Fold these 3 entries.
Entry 1:
Amino acid sequence: MRWIDIDLSEKRITQEAAILLSEAERIANGIPALQESEGLDARSVIDEMRAAGRLLFQTVMIVDQEAFCDSVERDGATTPGEDGTPEPGNVGFHLVLGAHHLHLPWFWLHNGLEFLATKHPLCWAETGSSPVSGAPERTWMERFTRASFVVGSDGDTSLAAILNELQGDALGPELLFVAGHTEESIRRLIYREAEAIEQALAVGPNAAPLARLKMPAEAVTPAALPALGWAYQAIHFAGPTSKPARPADVEGEYWMNRLLEESAIPEDEDYETAIGVEGEVLGVDPITSLLDDVCERFEVNGGPSESLNRVGEHAGGGDHHQQRKESSGTRWLLPDGPVDPEGIGRQGAIPPLVFSNSYRALPELGHRFTAAGASAFVGPMVPLFSRPARRFAGHCYAALGNGCCVGAAVWKAADACRRELGEEHPAWLSYGVQGYGALALQYL
């Protein structure tokens, strides 16, 4: 894949372009409120994405009318295809932005006819797409540079042929799965996301995984995370994607715990009536399927319904009316408290790749993580339900596991979700990449 750098740095943003960016930001910031009133996956969400993307496209055209012309010679990295050769027909665009514009949803670029993301990968950062070799803490950059010169047996340059020489004696990268703030009994639901990732990474280009997912037996705490960061090459954080995580949600913990306790021997009619679920989802464990539906209902309503409260009272009652604390959408919440990227970064413990499947992670945490040391950050730009969030993550890691760079992996995951859920479902446009889109598992 050939990456084309587009310079949209502060010095190139005119007053006219700044006005368009301000309006695009206003539209993007209003989408959560729209979703609150009409639904997370309402068709009107795509309309707003299209409107904001059109303004972003107009901004790029003001700065550089030939920005998306792939015949013009420009700076940019070149990543090998899955067979080891460059893919000249597959072009990705890397936007070089000022810090004030990194939070905007550039993946929504729309030329008035279609989203640019239907044909090209997109990513953005404060620097260009070509990694700067020589930094000792950036081992992946050295491997990225060396990959273009490595030749396997019989002149074969495929990833399977050069992987051993590229990685040396290393066993391959390990990806740390971190479950977001939740009780031990509820964590089983979040681990369904880990199962999807583990399955996606199961087979690599040489019949062996390019990376391995590790799930700690004990809950990861803020104090333990920096030490773990040193040992892993990537982190996947799984938390609530539809609403900000809450430091203490006693009411939610209560009714969810009671449901888990009773679900082993459920009164079918009572639970179906209370939760609005009929029957089982084919091929899915009925308890976890039930929990999925409950969580989605919780995401929609913002809390347990009256009927759910009655189910909990019938199960044994309890004091679950304590006042909730203010939500925090700007930090990871772990069982013992919040985590700030800056704190981990000061200890040099942020790995190159960070995937945060949590509420509006990209605009709220993307720049903070890349500034603190991450080379690439992936996360959602808008609220979305947990099911499409897990589906997107699974597709993304399947592409990464086959040797795609992270920019191409997010693009392929978006295309897969678009085909599965429909082009009017916002999930396929809900994610983006900030940082080096050329980073890939084989370089970690």
Entry 2:
Amino acid sequence: MATARTKKKVKAPRIFLKLSADHPQVFKALDDLGLAVRGAGPLDARTSHLVQLAAAAAARSEGAVHSHVRRALAAGVTREEIEHALLLLISTIGTPQVVAALSWARDVTGRR
């Protein structure tokens, strides 16, 4: 699925595709909001995706971690950079939550 958020194709989960087909206006508004927020400041796409990944990990949201890892990869962020960004959170959100987030990230990157 190509989105306005990334330049490369990103394979979204089936449920996301179904919900976006069922509620196209809502998901277009969400996509437009993401574009507006990213365009409102000086951070590049790679950095923006890493910030959102960190927030997803802190929120303990497996689905959001999966989504932001996919988006980060599509924006050119490496697996190593993703894992480093998550490791940086240990002293803030705790080791167990970082280990969980790394596991969720590896679901997407294929690294075991």
Entry 3:
Amino acid sequence: MENLSSLAPNTLPLLKKDNGFFNKLKETPLLQKLYNPVGFAFLILFAGIISLGISKFGPVFGILLLVVTIAIPAVYGIVMFPRFGIIILLVMAYVLFLLSRIGISGPIGIIMDALQFLMMLGLVLNQKKKNEWHLLKGPISTVILLWIAYNVLEVANPVTEARGAWIYTIRSVAIVLLSYFVFLYNIRTIQMVRFIFKLWLGLSFFAALYAFKQEYIGFSDAEEAYLHSDPAIASLLFIGGHWRKFSIFSDPVCFAYNMSMSSIFCIVLIAGKFPTWKKIILALLTASFQMASLFSGTRGANVLVPAALLLFAILNYNKKVLIFTVIATMFLIVLINIPTGDPNLARFQTAFRPNNDDSYKLRKANQKRIQPYILSHPMGGGLGATGTWGQKFAPGSYLANFPPDSGYIRIAVELGWLGLIIFCTMMFTFLKTGINYYYKIKDPEIKSYSLAMVLIIFAYNIANFPQEALVQYPSNVYFSLEVALLTVLYRIDQEKQNQLIVPSSIPNTL
């Protein structure tokens, strides 16, 4: 073999070529095109335009230029690379209200609408190329389209007095469910599913830590200003001399419900066939989520984990689960009845004694009072007829001052008993289909994920009775994700099982 000294001198630089980051950067097509006199002239001209624009129009010009520079690639990435868009959507759903509190002004909610529109556009463009409409078919897809169509039809409700509220309300009630089809079509691999779950737990842990910060360090200046901006806010969030915590979310209820759903997910995985070190991490996450949830003072969230565990014991019955259920039940009984001076724990205990609670009695009275109206209005009073939107668009109407409190009651009042039937049918279809898929799935890991999604959807239905659980970010987006994963996980398992099928006989070609 020839040594280096025998090689021609002009070949030595090739052998000593530096493969470092900056040399690779110089080899990129864009830099190669600009690394010449014409490229330098272009960059100088571009810098001059920026300088002139900022000097004439001020910092606004620079900010707009920066926004355009970032926005165009971002829009392209969301439309053409839907998995990238999914990650952006899931992250934005979690930090949406945090952005407004740190000083980012403007209609931030429009960002979510734009994201969902771009992802639906990407879905349509992909379908034109690949024609894979069969992936979007199924009982869940059918009932979701029926629900969306009914909500669209509500714009023509003849008895509504708050017609203008429809355009604001339908976004969170029905249109957000279109993201179900985005998730259903674009999540194809178990690796993508795992990444989404890790992202979700990471965001939940960040939210829990932020609640600990609010509890033990205090609110930020922006949060303090918000809490004292309206006496109505203080009346809802300052109870028994203690502020209810809302972490990075819009309100304590949304925060507590998301902590409960993350806890349910972790508990199901702890019971699954995963390495011990992962189960320890999941147990620590569950403890942090449940502790943080207590800071919210949301009593309705306290029953969600026990209710989900009851369904877990029914669907996954065995000796180990039975023992765990008995231990968990005994612990819960002790926790409910133990004497305490802690305001968070005391409020937790009242969730299991609703008949002794004045607010629960008031809600029951309101629900009894509105029953005749529901029975006499099959299509209800129209989307947005109650609560804040009702007071804004029809301040003198009968429904404007009615506090729905419950997601089911709001549907019955605004969409009528016909809308309530459609909604309950939709939820029944979710659970029935998810349970059927769970029993058909063979892979242990995928089976655990499927069971977790079923239990979370079940818990959301329970949560929707005392509060409105499905209309606020991030719950509405993540609920669509969890419903989509019922089918996605089943599809991934079926593909895996088909790959494992070995022909019973191989033709003898010898």
